[in-house]
Amino acid sequence: MRIQRILCPIDFSATTEAGLAPATSLATEYGAELTLLHVLNFPFTQIEALPPGFDVESYYEAMSDEANAHMAGLIDADAADFMKATTQVERGVPYAEIVRVCQDQSIDLVVMPTHARHGLDRLLMGSTTERIVRMASCPVLTVHPGDEPAFAPETILCATDFSAPADEALHLACDMAQRYDAKLVLLHIVTLWEYDPGNPSWRFPPLPEEYQASVIEGPQRQLEERRALASASKPHVETMIIRGFDAAAEIVRVASDEVSADLVVMGTHGHTGIAHLLLGSVAGKVVRTFPGPVLTVRQTD
């Protein structure tokens, strides 16, 4: 996977500008073009309430000029010497415009922060970032405001379910591990288990040991096949199989507590609409709960 064009959405808040440093670092590492994008989300539904004679188009032009000037000042002059940096302003709903720009301009990577909502607000409201993760036609790197500004991972955890998106994510994880001389850990979660650790008093009937062994055998073989492929480009590769009740929770736990990962890479099936509401998203849960960068790769058409 070649990263030649990187998109960094900007809305001038402290949260979204946190994505600028890793976007700049990656653009420098890959020699990629970096585009800073701001979407004017002026409420079209309220135009009729404006005073008579209000020039909406002039207002948009003034906002566009101000946004371009602000974004131009965000790129460090020294960093600009190693990459081509441009600014762009669009009008509309932010997530829809970001998705459209990714398709129209053949963007290879989006770098943007997550606002890290919590509790009921997180469950009900979602976020622009989560929509981009589900819908963008290219990989998406999500970062938190508290992450290290310089993107230089030393340990990369690549979670795989052996699907096509997961295999595409593995290719990108291998490339980044090679570029940054990082250790690569391949992780598979077997979610068939007897109890929920969050509610240990509620248990399934115990599973026979022979059946548990058969459930692990297939994933071990597939994980070893992918380890061999990854080792062809990056020799320092480790594998892990974990049994757990919640795949997303186990990925976050292993990344945080067992391997101290600086970056989690994983595929996403990009469910939308009813499918997303019913099935949820392991990738979306990891993006919300892992306290570090997460790189998601959606299956290409």
Short summary of the structure?
The chain has 301 residues and is of the alpha/beta class.
Task: Note down, in words, how this protein is organized.
43% of the residues lie in helices and 22% in strands. With 301 residues, the chain is of the alpha/beta class. It contains twelve helices and twelve strands. The longest helix has 23 residues. The protein folds into two domains: 150 residues, Rossmann fold (3-Layer(aba) Sandwich); 150 residues, 3-Layer(aba) Sandwich (Rossmann fold). About 5% of the residues have low confidence. Strands 3-2-1-4-5-12-11-6-7-10 form a ten-stranded mixed β-sheet, with helices on both faces. A two-stranded antiparallel sheet has the order 8-9.
Structural class: alpha/beta
What is the average per-residue confidence, as pLDDT, rounded to a whole number?
82
In the sheet with the most strands, the strands line up as: 3-2-1-4-5-12-11-6-7-10
Q: What are the secondary-structure elements, in order, as H or E? A: EHHEHHEHEHHEEHEEEHEHEHHE
Radius of gyration: 21 Å
Q: Tell the overall outline.
A: globular
Please name the CATH topology of the largest domain: Rossmann fold
Number of spatially distinct domains: 2
Measured between the Cα atoms of the first and last residue, the distance is 15 Å
Low-pLDDT residue spans:
119-125, 273-280
CATH architecture of the largest domain: 3-Layer(aba) Sandwich
Oligomer: single chain
What percent of the residues sit in helical stretches (DSSP H or I)? 40-55%
Give the CATH H-level superfamily of the largest domain. HUPs
**Could you give a short account of the major beta sheet?**
10 strands, mixed
Instruction: Assign the CATH class of the largest domain.
Output: Alpha Beta
> What is the total tally of β strands?
12
Strand content: 15-25%
Alpha plus pi helix count: 12
